[in-house]
Every structure is written in C-alpha cells, then in structure tokens.
Amino acid sequence: MDWQNFEADMLGKLRGTRRLAVIGIGADLREDDAVGSLLARELVDEIEAIERPGGGTVHEHSVDEYVKAGGLLVLNASVVPEQYITLVKDFAPDTIVIVDAASMGEQAGPGDLAFVRTDELDASTFSTHTISLRYFIEILSVLGVDARILIVGIQPERIGYGEDLSPQVAGTKVFLKSLLLRYLEQTFFDA
Hints:
There is one protein chain. By secondary structure, the protein is α/β, with parallel strands linked by helices. The chain has one domain (about 5-160, about 180-190): 3-Layer(aba) Sandwich (Rossmann fold). The protein has five helices and seven strands. A seven-stranded mixed beta sheet has the order 2-3-4-1-5-7-6, with helices on one face. The chain is globular.
C-alpha cells in the first residue's frame, strides 16, 4: 500500500476514537525488528515534550517506556507486551494501534506497511516477542478490553543482530511517526 492510501485508510480507521493506545513492539538489537519499539520510544519523547499553556506537563510517563495524556496512551512494549496488560486494561482504550515488524510475504518489499488482520496472526509463530501478538490480544479480550485493534505491520529487510534500521524501514518509521503525531496533536492536544 502506498503511503498516501495508507494515511487515508489509517485516518479513516481512527475516526471516532476517544481513547487511543499506541503500542510499539520489537527487539532493539534485531535491526528492523526494532521499528515498532523505536517508533513508540520516539512518540513518547515527543509527547513528553508537549507542555500545557502556562507550564506543566500534560501527562504521566515513564522515560522511554510510556506516556499517558488524557485519552492517549503511547507504550514502548519492546519484546514483552504481556508486562503491560494491566496498564492497557486500566487505561480502557476504545482503539489500540499495534506497530510491529511483520513478514508479509514475497510480494512485500522492505519498508512496506499494511494493516494485518488479527485472524492472520499465528499464535505459534516464532517471533522475537515472549508471547505472540495473537495471544496478547486474546488476553486483553478475556480481561474485558473492548477495543478496535489495528495492527500495522512493517516489512523488515533484515532481522539479524544490530541496532540500525535499514534505510527503507527507517523511512517508513519517519512517515508513520509524522502521521501519528499530526493525528495525536489534532485529536488529543491543542495544536
């Protein structure tokens, strides 16, 4: 999906959201697999810098981990999303956006992004996470989290050991960060 169509699709899917959780997942030392985690960390840092008119921060936060501001939760879940189940449940989002590297088949090129349906997730697939995304989502559902779930997959080029993103995946992260920041500022902050 090209970026312009993805943006229109994403904004359409987010329409009507009142309580949004953005969750980035990924292994920091596995090259492109880190994209979700890095995106969430950058969003946390950006939101952390937003101040109320007259001073003071608008949020609760844990450095590089999460930020909560009104109807917004941005969470860097790294490879252990299960550690944050209670935080997400107590926040009670109506929409959850999960960003993660995802192998989307031979037709996908590095940095391509697409929405992944929850029924496309395999509970037993090997991943760098301690539990599968499907299981994480099932736990949230069992605990009563009734949210629309959008999974944004980004096709990795490489997932060896290292800290750098490939240029294509890095470009996609910049695009997605910009899109989300514009949406968050318009929806949750006085821009």
